[in-house]
Amino acid sequence: LVLAMGILWNPEFGTLTYAAFVVFLLAVELLGADRRRILRGMVSILSSAALCAIAVLSSYALAIRVAYGSFPELFKMFRTFRVFSELGFNMLPMPLIHPWNLIALVFILGLASFLVAVIGRTLTPRHALILLVTIHGIGAFMYYQGRSHNWTLLGATTYAFILMAFFAESLRSAARDEGWYFLPWALIVFVLAGSVCQLTYAAPAISALVTEDANKVGSSGENMTIADNARFIRAHTQENEKVLILSRNYHQAYYYGFSHTVAAINPGLLDLFWREDYNRIVRFLASNKDVKIFFDPQGFARYNDMVDTVLSGMYEARSNNGRLWLLQKK
User: Fold this and answer.
1) Kind and range of the H or E element at 232?
2) Contact predicate 104/141, CB 8 Å
3) Tell me, what DSSP letter sits at residue 30?
């Protein structure tokens, strides 16, 4: 049930996590000796998985229906991946020769070790864990496949290192029983120990990244601007008053929070996904009578000229603090 809730939290990775755990449970069932019992166990797991997912999604849909008056379109949660794939948004091609080849090889070895254990009837719970990690790794690797940037590859390498820990443990056991395995085991330990050396060498830089001291100094001017604009909004509003703030997308939440005001229309500019969401804002500006509009002419993200057209034709500046304007309907 908890993992089924993850589908709502993050549809792509939540679904992957849920599917990986179900496959893991199915693999554990293969440890049994009686085929009929194995089949019954698998049917039970698949039925339970389907019921848990249906229960979670149905409960969420019902809660939204009660709170907002209509059922959510649940399947549109999964359209993000399709939209990005079809439109090619921010996608980058995969290089032919690249460290990703090694990561992919680790996942291939993970699948191979599981299949060999199944065919050879030497399956253990450890092989089921290897399969679980491998499925997660392959799923996360899809992010790199879509946007082949080195930073994106980091998300997939996590699972590869977990698998290499499994493989290293196997070599350690083999080295204990077979003397000639000592050399490759020693080589793996040496390579992994290199990361320890790197962590030690880069400790000051890593510490700076964690504490973000440089970012705090660099963003001090922006912080002052946000605080000043929030005070300006607070001075012209009452607590919990509904207003519309047209500013930098990532400043919007700060302004509402610091000024103790409420968004007059949702989703906000940071949450826009459909064209209709943007059109709703334009229609709201045209029909608005009493809601105050705060406008940041330098920071507002212009998707097109529709908002500017409505504001220039139907609104006028009532007050400003040099950066943020308070607009009222003409």
Assistant:
1) helix 220-235
2) yes
3) T
User: Which three-class secondary structure state does DSSP give residue 329?
Assistant: strand
pLDDT in tens, 43-86: 999 999 999 999 999 999 999 999 999 999 988 888 877 777 77
CB-based contacts of 167: which residues, under 8 Å, 6+ apart? Answer: 109, 188
Cα–Cα dist 259/232, whole Å: 8
pLDDT digits (tens, 9 = 90+) for 280-324: 999 999 999 889 999 998 888 777 889 999 999 999 999 999 899
Q: Of 250, 235, 225, which is closest to residue 323 (Cα–Cα)?
A: 225
What are the phi and psi torsion angles at 328 (to 5°)? -135, 155
CA-to-CA distance for 223 and 251, rounded, in angstroms?
10
The tokens for 143 are 């992010």
Residue 136: name the closest of 115, 106, 113, 116 by CA: 106
Q: Give me 189's structure tokens.
A: 């330990």
φ/ψ of 260, rounded to 5, equals 60, 40
DSSP string, 85-152: HHHTTT-BPPPSSSTHHHHHHHHHHHHHHHHHHHHTT---HHHHHHHHHHHHHHHHHHHHHHB--HHH
Q: How far is CA 20 from CA 17, 27, 110, in A?
A: 5, 10, 14
Q: Identify the pLDDT of residue 64.
A: 94
Q: Which helix (H) or strand (E) holds 167?
A: helix 150-177
Taking alpha carbons only, the member of 250, 232, 238 closest to residue 294 is 232
- H, E, C per residue of 32-84: CCCHHHHHHHHHHHHHHHHHHHHHHHHHHHHHHHHHHCCCCCHHHHHHHHHHH
What predicted TM-score, i.e. pTM, was given to this entire model? 0.59
Provide the 3-class DSSP secondary structure of residue 198. helix
Bridge partners of residue 263, in order along the sequence: 243
How remote is the C-alpha of 155 from its chain's centroid?
11
